[in-house]
Every structure is written in structure tokens, then in C-alpha cells.
Amino acid sequence: MSEFSADEATVTTFVGNTHLMSSLLGRRDENLREIEKAFPNSTIHVQGNLISVTGPDAAVVLRLFDELVLVLESGQSLDAVKIARTVDMIAANLKPSEVLRHEVVRGPKGKSIRPSTAGQKRYTDAIESSIITFGIGPAGTGKSYLAVAAAVQALHRRQVQRIVLTRPAVEAGERLGFLPGDLMAKVDPYLRPLYDALYDMVGPEGTARMLEKGIIEVAPLAFMRGRTLNDAFIILDEAQNTTPEQMKMLLTRIGFGSKCVVTGDVTQVDLQGGRSGLAGVEAILYGIDGISFVHLGARDVVRHRIVADIVSAYDEVSS
User: Fold this and answer.
1) CA distance 268 to 276
2) Which residue, of 14, 78, 203, 305, has the greatest Cβ tally within 10 A?
3) Cα–Cα distance, 294 to 292 (Å, whole number)
């Protein structure tokens, strides 16, 4: 519980659980050092289970400690990356404990799939409340992964009867006939990231079983034409490589009881001399009830730190 002194220059909090206190500070106080680096104008003093903070950002730092304790109480661990993300959320006046404790789905081995950033939480909330959600952002922001997690959760809750995964096969010009094998073998290289996500959510055997029963369907985008998809969770991945005509075609396949998530990165268009169907779709569809657009950025990258740095560097050049 946090307390303010009379002059509000120094604030204190007491962590009742000694084990949580140890995890909060980190091995050899590594977590504490990260927090001190994030707030260089504040002085943090730890005595037993009592934490005192003095300085202009004292109240903010203490709120950070209180939020980190709530994260630890949910069974999660802390590291430098998670602390940095938590600091960003506090700076944006968000509650990190609400973001990091939100579970999208639980994997076959008990692994919880959760948003890791405020942007990812906005994305998962939009998927839950909207019929069509556009997740737009750079590589590593969890667009496809969280879309698959939401699809599996909708299937578990019997909100849909099947999952449809599709992706434009731009490198093959949507002409897959020259590739060896049946349709699954031809499309497999293009949908591999979605398969990897499914393996995390339902396991390799569960994925194979659902594919065999038609509960999960995979197909190149060109094969969607002329269909109506009812009671389905549709994921269009790498949507920046669709043409405007293909985008319209896919969105008008949506039937009753269905949801659709469209993911892509408008800075990674591979179309040869064509217009991207993702680039201009927000201007066309913005304001339609049931459609949401969520933009993710470098702060939402959950891969190696260097990926976020690369994204930021390219953003600076293009801005």
C-alpha cells in the first residue's frame, strides 16, 4: 500500500510478500537498476520490504512499483524488456497490470497467450468487439500471432465453427500450379507463420487433426473468390500484398456469425507495379460500424530488442 508524505516529495510503499519483493528487485537488484535508469531524477531507497522514492517523479515511480507487484502476483516474471514496456505504459497513463494480465487464450501446455504492450491490448480488444479488425504495423508486433490466438479462443468458446487462414502468394503470382504436391503443399510456405502460431495454441497434433476435419482451412487468397464464409474466423495475413480488388473481394466474403482480422505492414509491399489494397483501405472504410483499425509501432515489437531499433530507424528515415 502506497503512502504520501506531507510535502509529497517522498512516497513509500510496503511489499508484504518477501518472495515478491525479491522478484520485484531482481537478481542482484537488476530490475531496480532498470527502474533507476528510467527515472534518473528520482532516488529510490529500499529497506527490507519498504520502498521509498524521492524526487519529481516519485508518485509515478511508486505507481510503477505497485503495478509491477500486481504483474508478479499474476504469476509472471520480470525482466528488463518487460520493465521498459511497463514504464512506457505508465508514461501513457495506462495500467500495465490490466494489459499484461489479460489472457487471450491458454495453450495446450498451460502457456498463457497475453498481449505484451498497450498497443497489443488495444488490438486484442478491437478483435473481440469488432466484426472486422485491421492490425497494421511492422514485423514483430504480434499481429498474426494474436489474431490466431483470438481465432482459437473464439473456436473454444463456440463463437465460430471454423478458422480460415489465407494469404496472398505474391512471390508465385497467385499461380501455384508449378509447385509440387497438392494444394496444402503449395500454400504451406506462405502460411508457415500462421502454422507456427497454431502449434503454440493447440499443438502440432491438434493442428493436424483440425486441418483434417476442416475445422481449420488454409487457402491462397485467389481461392476465396465466389465464396460466402459463415460462422468462421477469417485471418488475412500479409494483406499489404493484396490489390484493392482482392481486398474488396475478401471483405465481401464475410457471412453471418463471422469475424475477420486483416494484418499487414504497409512499408513491406511486394506487389510489382500494383497498388496495395491495405494502403488505402482505412480512408475507404473508416467510420463503418463494426470495423476497427489498430496501428502498432516500434514500442509494440516483441522480438529481439534490435528489431524495435531497426523499425525506429526506418521510421525516422521515412518521416
Assistant:
1) 10
2) 78
3) 7
